[in-house]
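[audit] Reproducing an earlier prediction to check determinism. Same input, same settings, fresh worker. If the tokens differ from the archived copy the diff job will pick it up downstream; this log only records the rerun itself.
[audit] input (203 residues):
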Amino acid sequence: MTESPGGTRRRAPAGAAVLREDVTEAIRAAVFEELAAVGYARMSIEGIARRAGVGKTAVYRRWKSKLHLVLDLVSAVAVQGLPAPDTGTLEGDLRLLYEVTSRALKHPVAGQIIPDLQAEAARNPEIAQALQKALREGQHSVASGIVQAAVARGELRARLDEDLALDLVSGPLYWRSVVVRTGLPKGYLGRLASATAAALREL
């Protein structure tokens, strides 16, 4: 029921949909699983609905197409972001960031979905834009916070090249884990944090 300008109560329009959150979450989980299993190109609303245990109508009531569904999920991941490290030192913050990111990138679903969406982004500007937004609001926002905190503590120069700094923070682990896709040797994350901190001090 809603209240009209005159103060009287009126019912919601007949047939107005109330979207159950548990169904929405089941569909979102199914999208991630379907992306990992068949990739974006072969993914279908039918497959998503079957995996979620719902009818196609339940999916279409929430998203107009599989493109809108994937864009929504990518944006949601960006909003969630990563926990902001606060160890009190630049190297400690970098090490914690790399540990959390490494665990996330090791997940088999992430390992399959990210490369597939990157390939799709080369053909689809909307997906490319959503991925860029996710990176800016996720990994890059956390990396920027680490750099700014280090500047405030006096560990880094105030007038450093922030774009280059963010590339140094985020690039190597992503390259190793997602592009080259090789395992990380023992002690690698600690050495990477030390090397990155040293490079940032030179900017």
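[audit] rerun output stored. Observation attached for the diff report: The domain at 78-201 is CATH 1.10.357.10 (Tetracycline Repressor; domain 2).
[audit] end
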